[in-house]
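Example record

The entry below shows one chain as it appears in the dataset: sequence first, then structure tokens.
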Amino acid sequence: MPALCAALLQVRDWYVDSFKELREFPTITNAQDEANFTMLLRSIYRRHANVVPVMAKVRALALACMCMWVCVRACERACLSTAARAA
């Protein structure tokens, strides 16, 4: 579970950082500002390139956790059922 939380927090942090950078960027008034803004957008694009693979891993981890939980619950029910029959 810690890996799942860490991955989700990482993606959240990428979005928070990107939003802050965009909000804090000064008003574009000349060609140099535009070039700097373009560099910022490219940086953000590169940062977010891993969002889909990370979220796919999160989904896989979440599904694995759910499967384990379902198996544990099924085993518990089977044990209780067997114990009830034996009694």
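Notes for this example: Helices lie at 2-24, 31-47, 51-86. The two ends are 38 Å apart (CA to CA).
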